[in-house]
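Recap from last week: sequence in, structure out.
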Amino acid sequence: MLDIELLREKPQQVKDGLRSLGADPAQVDAILALDGRRREALGEIEVLRAERNRVSKEISGLKDAAERAKRIADMRTVGERISALEGALRQVESDLEVAMWAVPNLPHPSVPYGADETHNIVVGTWGPQRELSFEAAPHWDLGPELGIIDLERGVKLSGSRFYVLRAAGARLQRALIAWMLDVHTRQHGYTEIYPPFVVKEQCLWGAGQLPKFGENIYHDVEDDLWLIGTAEIPLTNLHRDEILDAAQLPLRYVSYSACFRREKMSAGRDVRGIKRGHQFDKVEMYQFTTPEASYDVLEAMVQDALDICRGLELPHRLVQMCTADLGFHAAKKYDIEIWAPDAPSGWR
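Predicted structure tokens:
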């Protein structure tokens, strides 16, 4: 959530940032209007409370019974007005909070402007794109043929977009997770965290997952626990309500987790197989640092991720996302794409 002070002091800057993202800059005016109503209500409540306190002291010293009764009646009216204003204030504060949560993060000045993903910038490419002497088979054909992916039984067990990894497929996934954790902890200086895969609702708000992505999150209504879509959610909240000494920073964490998401999209070639499953495993890097160091830390984390691709000898490229392709949370974002012979563009 953006700081309300930023919207109050630099509304045009925020509007320009939202416009570059393709978001509606009118959000700023709507929020400032709610903020104005909130402050106006607070001011009136404070004036009325002060009046009530002053008159209450005066009433105790009044000798005239009629005057005393009149003052008491007047203060009853004031009390009713205060109650009405407090009810209106609660509604305005609720509306303001909802409106603030709906505003995306603003892009960093170094992010290139772009109207869509075609304006993303390829920063660099590593490794030769292999030339095959045969037609490449997609993984949803090759996996079942090799006996390492069982799509049919995944659907039988849990429905569409679930799958079963078998034999070498299951072993490969387990080995990759362990290897990535070892690289990040032994070579890159991260501390491994094994978090719960279900969290309280406030963790989702703290990680910016609600309200934007509420429809894609699995929710256990009885216990009011939410299945995580990424280890970023518990890691973001690991030090919630704590004050960290700047001398401790940066705190480098890496975490494996199973992840759960409702992938609501149309069927097609790009979502066949295991690419867009409702359940998947991921190794997540995360750092707590100072605002001044955050973008240097981002660049370092990108290099840590690129080390994984190089260690696996996978042809890959680094892409910086333009403003229109940043998503809701990011102020600056990179994607690492792997060359794949069956990908329409050649990269995934």
